[in-house]
Amino acid sequence: MKVLVLSHMFPRRSDDWDGIFVHEQVLALRKIGIDARVIVGNPEGFKVGINRNTWRHLRSPRNSEALPEWQELNGVPVMYFTFSEPHFEYWERLGAACYVREIRQLAHLLRESFPYDLVHAHTAWLDGSAAVSLARHSRVPMLLTEHTGPFSALTARPVMRWVTQRALNRANVVIAVSEVLRQDILRQVKIQRPAKITVVGNGMRPDLFYPTNEQPPADGTIRAVWVGGYQPVKQPLMLIQAFSAAWQQNHRLRLSMVGAGPLESVIRAEVQSRNLEKVISFYPSAPRQLVASYLRRHHFLVVSSETETFSIIVIEALACGRPVLSTRCGGPEETIRDKSFGELVESSTEGLTKGFLTMVSRLGEFDPQRLYAYARDNYSIDVIAGRVANIYIKVCAGKMEHDVLPQKASKVSL
């Protein structure tokens, strides 16, 4: 089976980790015999504005005499193409049109180069719209995986909402990475066949995330680690406020923050203003191997987000044998199924403060091997690839039924 994957989120020279979860899924699919290849759009820097000729320009054919070359990226064939990027103020109205225009010009040559049986887009905005065009051109089925959170980012503005809804409705099957995202989709856009939306989470790499003898320092401290981007939706300021209140009640607590983002300077200033420099440590964004080491060297992971569609770091922490303290923000609520996995608290300073203190009192209750087995059996990248592969087979055979997918990867007929 040949599958063409569209994802504007994918590793590139400027960002080795953008869309790494897509790369890992495609690599796992290739390992079980599916010839999956990826095409990725890069803005070329030409800014498109709006005038009376804009739509004529975007709809007019432009001859593409040569196809960009396939490249090998850590075991995955990938093709990077460029598209004209709209001015920021026109992104909502022109972003998808610019992206789709370039895909349409490449469609014939792309089909000759790689006669795919199915198109799989990651996210409805941009890639979903392009996949609709390619699937129509080649008369093949289309699958769409939605990751975007909060999903309202795609539906708050009329044009983006229309484009997103169209792509979701044109797909043969839609995969939401969590039940909470599936429900968000159904609430925010009109889906003609709601039963075609199924749930398959993201996968973690068990070769990187697993329990070892690596442990937190035996100095009597209780160490929590936070991994993410310093962005409003992650609520890092609330995290600092909650940790400060908890530390006032238990001086054994320590916090490490791993990541980068626009609010980093604000967070560092807040830590300094509260005189917490000796108990809160900052680390830059790190490769996955180092993230795994950070998780093992702390007693538990803390997630402070307002909303998460899935939160792969939760699964990675469990795989390393570490419990999780998380706000009730969506995705983590589906993986922290009971108190044997950690604590779920309300998304507030008071809730998170109470959560820190509860985790300190419960650390002896968690079984690292049980946490690892749960993550491995349900969310390893091979398990997820097996579920996706079974959907591919059913879609291509015209037999996609909206039943419960198998919990473990199996040998599939390709």
Major sheet attributes: 8 strands, mixed
Shape: globular
| Total domains | 2
Per DSSP, the total helix count is 14
Question: Element order, helices and strands?
Answer: EHEHEEHEHEHEHEEHEHEHEHEHEHHH
Notable traits:
41% helix; alpha/beta; Rossmann fold; disordered C terminus; 8-stranded mixed β-sheet; 14 strands; 6-stranded parallel β-sheet; single chain
Describe what this molecule looks like in 3D.
The model is unreliable at 50-56 and 401-414 (pLDDT under 50). Helix 3 (91-113) packs parallel to helix 4, helix 7 packs across helix 12 and helix 13 runs parallel beside helix 14 (381-397). Helix 10 links the parallel strand 12 and strand 13 (324-327). The longest helix is centred in the N-terminal third of the chain and has 23 residues, at 91-113. The chain folds into 2 domains: 2-203 and 382-397, Glycogen Phosphorylase B (Rossmann fold); 222-375, 3-Layer(aba) Sandwich (Rossmann fold). The chain is built from 14 helices and 14 strands. The chain has helices at 20-31, 54-59, 91-113, 124-138, 158-170, 179-188, 236-249, 264-273, 288-296, 312-319, 331-335, 349-362, 368-379, 381-397; strands at 2-6, 35-48, 71-73, 76-86, 118-122, 142-146, 173-176, 197-199, 222-229, 253-260, 280-283, 300-303, 324-327, 342-345. It has an 8-stranded mixed sheet, sandwiched between helices. Strands 11-10-9-12-13-14 form a 6-stranded parallel sheet, with helices on both faces. The radius of gyration is 22 Å and the shape is globular. The protein is α/β, with parallel strands linked by helices and 414 residues long.
